[in-house]
Amino acid sequence: MVLYTKVQLAAFVTYLIGANGYLFKRFKKIPKQWIGLFTYVVPPFFLGVTFHYVHYLFCRRYYNLQSEVNKIKNVDGAIPVIYHNSYNFRAINRLSAILPHPFDFLRSARINNIMEQNIPNFKAIKPFAISSQLLIDLGMSKIYMLKLCSTFCVGKYLEKLVLSVFPECLVRYFILDGMLLATSGTIIAASLALSKGWAINISGGYHHASFNKGGGFCIYPDISLAVRFLQKYHNLKKIMIVDLDAHQGNGYEADFLDDENICIVDFYNHDNYPYDYLAKQAIKVDVAISYYTKDTEYLEKMQLIRQKILEFKPEFLIYNAGSDILRDDPLGRLDITPLGMKYRDRKMFDMCKQFNIPIIMLLSGGYQRGGTQHVGDSIVDIINSR
Question: Please, how many CA atoms are within 13 Å of residue 236, restricted to the half-sphere of its CB?
């Protein structure tokens, strides 16, 4: 758990104990549901806002941003794979029977287990949570970060408005902290890939989130933040994003609409979510993928990526490797086999190796439990080929 959340949770529990005793004794005639509303929902929001500002001001006054940047740059490991146990939303997984959701909330843990079983002496690199000061330094909106104190906004971005009835500190503890760690993992992977040549974050790929808003199960714009970190702290200029998730990556596209140093290649179904025609203008290679596209057609189109690499000559490549292209995925609705996806992933890494381009792989979307095994097998294949 992030220290910021620990303190906030402790303050909330202390408040809860005091408020419960006082309100129920002081206002006996008021219906208990109203007391509950003003005890569990309204004050926690203001508590979250207060902690947000106190944390921000504390970091601004006492936190050494450069030391955090250096800490990220100094991360090392034998195998450049990033994983943290908090990537998994175990509490939500237990509630999946009453709050159904297509995502496999334990996907990262299952994939990590597959690698531990199939790769000798495998040990993933454990990320640490980056500060709000660094998020703002890399371009994240202060207003958007303030909105994340509202469980209504978080519920809207995650498409689960039922979250709006929960206290902000609990939503942060069970959901946002894990996403923040995954975002840190993407930035660490990007920095690590410069020395290793490649890196994989067993989460991330929140391609519907931008610096100013979330959406489509995405909160933190990890791809945009990684791009800015590479540009600002590693002095890179030309970066390519190849998004092979079944859905349009409208979040980072909105962030880089006018940036000619960012080349975006996006393979997605134009008749599927999110239908963002403004963000689409940022795409340099826009490849339409129809419903139930099969392996041969899909893999033939990947030749367009090679052509764009030769033309653009990127210094770094971010590969958003959504597994929602797999057959029977309820949201992707394509017809790619596990072997086809494995070939797709291997081809991306082989191309970058051929042209000596550092690459990071992010897992992004994937909405069937059976697909988790195939993703793990593909990553094992990549690691064994390095």
Answer: 22
Instruction: Identify the pLDDT of residue 168.
Output: 79
C-alpha atoms less than 13 angstroms from C-alpha of 251 in its C-beta half-sphere: 28
Asked whether 360 and 199 are in contact (CB, 8 A), the reply is yes
Active-site residue identified among 52, 84, 207, 208: 208
Half-sphere exposure of 112 (CA within 13 A, CB side): 20
| Beta bridge partner(s), residue 200 | 81, 361
Residue position matching structure tokens 């299952």: 110
Span 308-348, pLDDT tens digits:
999 999 999 999 999 999 999 999 999 999 999 999 999 99
| Of the candidates 5, 130, 132, the residue with the CA atom closest to the CA atom of residue 57 | 132
Say how many C-beta atoms besides its own lie within 10 A of residue 16's C-beta: 15
DSSP-based three-state secondary structure for 331: coil
Closest-CA residue to 4 (of 142, 149, 218): 149
Q: Is-catalytic flag, 208? A: yes
pTM value is 0.89
In the sheet with 198-201, reading across from the earlier edge strand, the strands are: 81-82, 198-201, 359-362, 316-320, 239-243, 262-268, 285-288
The dihedrals phi and psi of 141, each to the nearest 5 degrees, come to: -65, 135
